[in-house]
Amino acid sequence: MIKGSVYKSMLRAMALGGTIALLFCIPAFAAKSLGYVDSGPGVGLYEDVSNENTASDASTAGTGAQGTDMTSDAAASQGAEGSNAIDPSLLPDIEISYAAFVHGGSWSLDTPDHTVVKAPTGGYLTAFRAYLKGVPEGMDLGVSYAVNLSGSWWLPESSNGGENGGPGGDAPLEGVRFWLTGADAANYDICYRVLQNGTWTDWVRNGETAGTVSAAIWIEGFAASVVKKGAEPPQMEERAVDPSRPMIALTFDDGPSASVTGRILNSLEQNGGRATFFVVGSRVSSNAPTILRAWQLGCEIGNHTYGHKYISKIGADGIRNELGSTNQLIASVTGVSPVLMRPPGGFYDSASLSVVGELGMSAIMWSIDTRDWQHRNAQKTIDTVLSQVKDGDIILMHDLYNASADAAEYLIPELTRRGFQLVTVSELAAYRGGLQPGHIYSRFR
Ligand code: ZN
């Protein structure tokens, strides 16, 4: 019997390897040999393997706590201690997600593994927070980090989502150290680099210092990646949004569906665009690989209720059930619970919005309605969008119909060519006034 969250991690690992098909025909004995299934009551194979590696945990944690420089030798010795390490090809892929506080601004959005987070030109970062994604149940792995804050030297470490630095203050960061914690740290490296004086440092890993400290130069940008022990980090990706350029949010409701959503994702991937998918909860489990792929491409997953229910008609408990169950299903795939919902049919009232707000969510409408679900005519959808589109628009489409995918495949490159940045709703909001729970938005200008 494969545990729920362990299963999802396998799914994630398989999806990353592009071998999803294998997952569904993997025999029980093979799954067991991967180390992700219970070998008896309460005993996972993961624990059996990782218990041998506690020494590396202690040495890693100690380094951070004392704030001393970790030498390359010390970093290298962690690898040597992994003599009981699992065959790397059987290990799940783990990712780090991080946010930085931009001086004079706010926290950045959570930034995916090996993706650049950067202050505007001339600016600098003042704080970090980070956490790991994709850690299966039974694996003992976390992340800790410490920053060298101008005027304060190295601060005490923070771990697993805690803030480190001086968010909201004026002191710039000069150096950072990240390291993995827990018994399974022996099987992975954390690699990171910083942008100083307009130049990226080399990658360093496992507690080494990135950045030149005490030289009056500040950290302007950052990227990090968790890799299997000894592996090279993937190529860095830039997904910085330029706030001075036009941006719009394409949104797709009522899906996902493997074929239509898949075509839209292909086009987004080819054009460096992102979109927001307001998914119906009842379709999440059967389309988990599609949702995971969208998430990994930087798209946003929003909540369109479990059963496409009109929230103005189902009462407070009905809304809590419909949105809560769908949030849980989505979080079980992506690891993150949505903060956006779209009212099915566009129906809402003040009472239903206040329940949405209680759940910490905002409601998102649209400023361009393609009515693609009704006419199923790609050219009509294209004409509707191109004749109206302006900076800050939220465009409504549906990823259930081939005609909608036909339109998206034309619109995504064409809108990009016309200078529109295709961003998620949360990204659009972040650059244009922000989101508040319980409020409803139809555009961000
Ligand atoms: Zn709908």
In summary, what is this structure?
The chain is α/β, with parallel strands linked by helices and 445 residues long.
Description:
With 445 residues, the chain is of the alpha/beta class. It has two domains: 178 residues, no CATH class; 195 residues, TIM Barrel. Helix content is 32%, strand content 24%. It is built from 14 helices and 24 strands. Strands 4, 11, 12, 13, 14 and 15 form a six-stranded mixed sheet that branches. Strands 16, 17, 18, 21, 22 and 23 form a six-stranded parallel sheet that branches. Strands 6, 7, 8 and 10 form a four-stranded antiparallel sheet that branches. A hairpin with a 3-residue loop joins strand 6 and strand 7. Helix 7 packs parallel to helix 8 and helix 12 packs parallel to helix 13. The longest helix is centred in the C-terminal third of the chain and has 20 residues. It is globular and about 60 Å long. Bound molecules: zinc ion. Zinc ion binds next to loops.
